[in-house]
Amino acid sequence: MSCKKDDTLVDLPDGSISFDLPASSDVIEMPVSILADATTTLEIKAALTGNAANEDHHVTFAIDTTKISGYTAKYGPALVLPTSAYLFYKSIVTLPAGATKSEAAILNIGQQTKLTEYTTYVLPVVIKSVDGKIEGPATNRVIYYVFKTGKPLFVNRTGWTIAGFSSQNSATNAAGMLIDANNLATYWASSIQQSMPQWVSINFGKEVSFISLTYYLPTILVYPTQGGYPTSMRIETSMDGTTWVNKGVFAGNIVNKMQTIDVGQTTARYLRFTVLASAKYSNLYDAIFISGIMLTP
C-alpha cells in the first residue's frame, strides 16, 4: 500500500511573523525630493521568531490606510501618500524552509512632483496574512514609511483663482487659463479691441513666499514673428487685494518662449501682472497671449 504525502502546512505560532526591522521604532523616514520624478525602490522583509521554518510559508504585505490615525495620534499631522505615488510591485513573498527571513517585498515610490510642498506623507504597511490566514502568525505591528517633502521647483497653484482682469478675447482664452495645469496649450488672450496696458490679478488663497515669476507663451504663438508678447511689464503684490506694492517694471526678455523675472524675496496673497507694452499681434493688434504664470519659492 502506497503512502500519501500530507501537504498541509504546519501552522506557525501566533505572532511569530513580523517585520525584519528593529523593534525600537515603527517609523522609517525616507528622503523625497519633489523637484523631479524618480522611482525609489523599498525592500520589505518578514522575519520568523524562534527556530527556522520546516517548510515554505507565504507572507502578504499590504498598505492599510486606516492606520494613519495611529501615526497622527502619536507623531502629529500627516497625509496618506496618494495611490498615484506608489506601487506595491511585489506584496507576496516566500519565507523559505530552513530560513528565518523572507525574500524581499518590493514597494516602488514615484510621481513625487505631484506631491505638495512642505507636507508629511505616510504609508502604513502591515502584514496582512501568512499562508492566506489573516489571524494567527502575522503580527499586528504597523510600520509607517514617512516621506517629508521640502522646497518645490515651483509654488503649487492649487487653490489659486483669478481675482480680476482687464479683458479677454473669448471664454476659450479666458484669464483662468493662466493658472490651469497646462503651460503650453491653453492661454489667456487679451481682447484684440483693447489697447495696452492689459492686466490680470491672481488670488493665491493664502500667503505665498516666492523670489521670482515665470510666464510662458503658448505653443500656438509663432514667436517672435507673430507678435502678441510682452515687451514691458509691471509686477505688483498685495496682502489684501486692495493695497499694492510695486515690485518693478521689467523689459521683455523671452527665451524658449518663457521669461523669469526676479522680484526678490516676497510674501503675498495676491499678484497683479500688467503688460505695459507689447509687440503688435499680426502687426495690427495690441493683444497679448500668455499661457501660464508660475512662482519660484
TrEMBL record:
Span of domain F5/8 type C: 149-293
SUPFAM superfamilies in the record: Galactose-binding domain-like (SSF49785)
Name of the protein in question: F5/8 type C domain-containing protein
Organism the protein comes from: Pedobacter africanus
